[in-house]
Specification:
Layout lengths: L11 H16 L12 E6 L5 H12 L3 E5 L13 H9 L4 E6 L4 H8 L4 E6 L5 H15 L6 E5 L6 H10 L6 E5 L8 H9 L5 E4 L2 H4 L5 E4 L10 H7 L18 E3 L20 H22 L4
Parallel strand pairs: 1-2, 1-3, 3-4, 5-6, 5-8, 6-7, 8-9
The protein binds N-carbamoyl-L-aspartate.
The site of N-carbamoyl-L-aspartate has 11 residues, from helix 2 and helix 6.
Length: 307
């Protein structure tokens, strides 16, 4: 059974196909309004979420399907000690496809090897978040017109930010990609991501603490929140949380065609005044998230023989 646990589970060609489907859905939503008639998506979220869960659910409704939802782990049998494996086997009896978010790295993978329906990782701890990356890639494709030859600045919590890890894994596969990794010393990219993804693929990157000085060379700036829930102590979080705050003044040195992305939620790292800047694309990302997930649900249900 085909599941999507990390972005590399999808080939570059499949991602191009998903982007094409998502753009076709955006242009002709009515053509897709009944395609999942009678099918059910289960969203199992054992961590907080607004955009990811609701966009998955809106995606299934807009495909004509239904949704079963666990939005709070404390209200499910996980709170009684049920294993992820047993939960996955159980939910497979009721739903045609599962989207799971879990605080433990690897939990959606465990679900996928026990489920008899496709499982989509909707974020596992500080590890991966492939559907946010599909959203990011769709947004970059639609805003810049292509995914190759881009210099991408990634700023903030590169240590715990799962959206960053998946984005780097995805963008590393396009020719001409360069990364500028901007973070405080303590929140630098984990060495396993550097070694297994950037260095393994020979992707050029620099590491710096300087956001403003990096801006002029960027085609896209991907801002991220400091991931409070992954810190071992509050003092460290408080010291690091406002390391970077993007303001209209700081943006003066950025190119006119640089796009500003953020997976959201934003805490303090992009000032509200930036929202009016035409380069700000983070609410477009939110909208694209539903279409990217519609395309993925369709692809996986077709491959599973459910459609
Ligand atoms: C991200 C996540 O959950 O990793 N949010 C999202 O899904 N859009 C980013 C974050 O929480 O900072």
């Amino acid at each position: 059974m085909r599941s999507v646990i990390r972005i590399a589970d999808l080939s570059v060609e499949e991602i191009a196909g998903l982007n094409a489907t998502a753009s076709d859905i955006i242009a002709h939503p009515k053509n897709y309004a009944e395609v999942c008639h009678g099918k059910k998506l289960a969203t199992l979220f054992f961590e907080p979420s607004t955009r990811t869960r609701l966009s998955f659910e809106a995606a299934m409704y807009d495909l004509g399907g239904h949704v079963l939802s666990v939005s709070d782990g404390n209200s499910s049998s996980a709170a009684k000690g049920e294993s992820v494996a047993d939960t996955a086997k159980t939910v497979s009896c009721y739903a045609d496809i599962i989207a799971m978010r879990h605080p433990k790295e690897g939990a959606p993978y465990v679900a996928s090897v026990n489920a008899s329906v496709p499982v989509i990782n909707a974020g596992d701890g500080g590890h991966n978040h492939p559907t946010q990356t599909l959203t990011d890639l769709l947004t970059i494709q639609r805003e810049k017109g292509h995914l190759d030859g881009l210099t991408i600045g990634v700023c903030g919590d590169l240590k715990f930010g799962r959206t960053v890890h998946s984005l780097l894994e995805a963008m590393s596969r396009y020719p001409g990609t360069r990364f500028v990794l901007i973070s405080p010393e303590e929140l630098k990219l984990p060495s396993y991501v550097k070694k297994d993804i950037l260095e393994a693929q020979g992707v050029p990157y620099i590491q710096t603490t300087d956001l403003e000085g990096s801006l002029p060379e960027l085609d896209a700036l991907y801002m991220t929140r400091v991931q409070r829930e992954r810190f071992f102590n509050e003092e460290d979080y408080l010291r690091l949380k406002d390391s970077y705050i993007l303001t209209p003044e700081r943006l003066r040195s950025a190119r006119q065609d640089m796009i500003i992305l953020h997976p959201l939620p934003r805490v303090n790292e992009i000032s509200l005044a930036v929202d009016a800047d035409p380069r700000a694309c983070y609410f477009k990302q939110v909208a694209n998230g539903k279409f990217a997930r519609m395309a993925l649900i369709l692809m996986l249900l077709k491959e599973a023989g459910t459609l």
